[in-house]
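Morning. Coffee machine broken again, so started the prediction first thing and wrote up yesterday's gels while waiting. Chain of 197 residues, entered below exactly as on the submission form.
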Amino acid sequence: MDDDDECETPSVKGLEKILFGGKRSGNHVDEVWPNLLLGDMSVANDRFSLWKLGVTHVLNAAHGKMHCQGSHEFYGSTVEYYGVPADDSPSFNLSVYFQPCADYIKEVLSSPGGRVLVHCAVGVSRSASLVLAFLMIHQRLSLLDAVKAVKLHRWIFPNRGFLRQLRALDLTLRCEEHNTRGDHHSSALEGQCHDLL
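Came back before lunch.
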């Protein structure tokens, strides 16, 4: 097995199998990366809990949806708010938010004392996908490694459409790295990269 087989992106079915394993009971919120919390709307709607958790920023992946109260007015001046109006639907294009949200999370984590809660309704699909994208874009983890890193702390299950979009991101990032390194020993990756162009 060479290096390229080692970092092959699993199929959507393969990812679902990995995601399905492990404990399935979840907390309202879990710290899945240093100062990066992934949670549901009940913790996001509880300003006292956020204060106790030391949250300075909230990224709401269900902005404007029912039961998600998040807004600049709701949090006031104590917490910075960023809203993404995503639907938890396989046909929804979440990938347009991958880069801006990853940049936002990175900016928060780079600032002294910054702690960010990323949430949606349940904290397993929309928000989890944005956290995975951040880990892939700014922490340079493969999709598989990002999934494993988050699953150590929280059960997640992005819908099939989001998994497809994350696989496409994984391939794009691997191709960029491949081209930057000028590494032309894998014809399989070369072909996949060519198909993307």
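The first strand starts at residue 29 and ends at 33. Going to sketch it on the whiteboard this afternoon.
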